[in-house]
Specification:
Layout (H helix, E strand, L loop, with lengths): L2 H16 L6 H11 L4 H25 L7 H9 L12 H11 L4 H20 L2
Helix pairs in contact: 1-2, 1-3, 2-3, 3-5, 3-6
Length: about 130
């Protein structure tokens, strides 16, 4: 597989891994960096962008949900605000945080910013292994 194809696969796996679909973007990032170590920054940015974009899909899915009754766990997201999305990289919990943030109509650009910071930090740690 070429470097370009590997980076496209990394984007796809990062995007899908941040939605409600299962994905293993960490393993793909690890493989890309082993095969193309000079592409560190490109790979980190692509993985972060794809994963943040996928998280924003979950955010907007939450935004589209009708606001009928207030859920107890959603109040915790409201209390901490968009900084809680630094944890959006966590399996399962991260998806719920993104949905809750969207449902609460939190500021979209702050949500994207905090998601990106948390997701980049996770990928950075993986790249250092």
């Amino acid at each position: 597989m070429t470097e370009t194809a590997s980076l496209i696969s990394l984007f796809a796996s990062s995007f899908l891994g941040a939605t409600l679909l299962p994905g293993g973007s960490e393993a793909v990032l690890f493989a890309v960096l082993k095969a193309y170590p000079d592409s560190l920054w490109t790979a980190l940015l692509i993985a972060t962008f794809g994963n943040t974009l996928g998280g924003m899909v979950s955010f907007y899915m939450g935004w589209l949900l009708p606001q009928t009754q207030q859920l107890k766990h959603v109040e915790k997201v409201r209390r901490f605000g968009t900084p809680v999305l630094l944890l959006a990289w966590l399996p399962l919990l991260g998806d719920a945080l993104c949905l809750a943030a969207g449902w609460l109509r939190l500021c979209w650009w702050q949500a994207a910013l905090f998601m990106a910071i948390g997701k980049f930090a996770r990928y950075w740690i993986i790249a250092q292994i």
